[in-house]
């Protein structure tokens, strides 16, 4: 299955990339008034009306999967495919 490429950050958060574009972020909830867990958000593109591009999960893996599901849904809606790995299209040489 195609997925986002995740990179762990020093502060403990995760950045999700599609090709070279960072489209998702997962961060640990550190607010004492909020339930413990992880916040996910996908900002790589504008949301269609009625879609929520962020949420909360109890584990980092669940938060990353929620972000991947949202990104895949957005790509399917837009008629695009995930970059896995980045594909390079050679330019035609002019005569």
Q: Decide which structural class fits the backbone.
A: alpha+beta
The number of helices is 1
What is the H/E order?
A: EEEEEH
Major sheet details: 5 strands, antiparallel
How many domains would you count in the coordinates?
1
Helix proportion of residues, in percent? 10-25%
Mean pLDDT: 82
Q: Walk across the major sheet and give the strand order.
A: 1-2-3-4-5
Which parts are unreliable, with pLDDT below 50 for 5 consecutive residues or more?
A: none
- Report how far the terminal alpha carbons are from each other: 40 Å
The number of distinct β-strands equals 5
Shape: globular
Which band does the percent of strand residues land in? 25-35%
Query: Using only CA atoms, what is the Rg?
Result: 16 Å
């Amino acid at each position: 299955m195609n997925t986002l490429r995740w990179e762990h950050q020093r502060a403990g958060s995760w950045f999700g990339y599609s090709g070279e574009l960072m489209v998702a972020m997962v961060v640990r909830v550190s607010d004492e008034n909020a339930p413990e867990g992880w916040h996910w958000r996908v900002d790589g593109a504008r949301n269609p009306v009625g879609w929520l591009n962020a949420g909360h999960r109890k584990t980092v893996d669940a938060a990353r999967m929620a972000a991947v599901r949202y990104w895949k849904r957005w790509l399917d809606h837009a008629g695009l495919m995930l970059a896995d790995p980045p594909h390079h299209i050679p330019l035609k040489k002019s005569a």
